[in-house]
Structures are given as C-alpha cells and as structure tokens.
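REQUEST ID: PR-0412
SUBMITTED BY: lab tech R.K.
PRIORITY: routine
TASK: structure prediction, single protein chain
INPUT:
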Amino acid sequence: MLDQEFIQKMKERLMQERLEVRADIEELSQPEAPMDNPDEDDLANDAVEDILQGSSLAVLRNLLDRIDSALERIKDGTYGICLETGKEIPKEVLENEPWAEVLPPIMRHKLEETL
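STATUS: complete
OUTPUT:
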C-alpha cells in the first residue's frame, strides 16, 4: 500500500505537471500571425505546422485528462491501483509516470504467469 507521504509527493508533481501542460496547451492554441504574400512553399509549410500543432494539442489534452484522472483517484483513494488488474502499481512506475493507470505490460505478463 502506498504511504500518504508518497501520495502527497505524487499529488504535488501532478499539480505541477498539470500547470505546465495547461500552459503548453494555451501556447499552442494561440492564433498564428498572418503571412504577408505567402507562396506555395509557405502555404505547404503552414499546413504541415497546423497538422503537427493539432497532433501536439491532442497529445497534451490526453495527458491533461490522464493527470486529472490521477488527481481524482488520489481524492477517492484508488491512486496507484491498476485499473485493469486491481493490483498495486509499483512506486517506481508512478515516480516515472505519476498519471499511470495500469501496470506496464511486462508486469501484467509476469503477474499472469504466476497465476
């Protein structure tokens, strides 16, 4: 079972990550300055940048959702419990990815082998 000190540490990290991700989303969501006399290359580059920006925003929004979900699990007392197996997620995993929801596949595989 995860101790309260560790959970508090993870909560603080999650809150900091949340602020950073929200700032990144805000920055990427700012409108671009219009181009003066764009040529075909400019328009093509702009289209590629729009696609990359859209992908980045999707990834950041997904991460924000996962962070918010982890904060909810802290509130309801289920933080650090794998959503698929019900087993505890090791501290080492949570330290690397505080928003982790499930055991890494290799750990799930090892758990299945022992059953």
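NOTES: The chain has one domain: 4-114.
REVIEWED BY: pending
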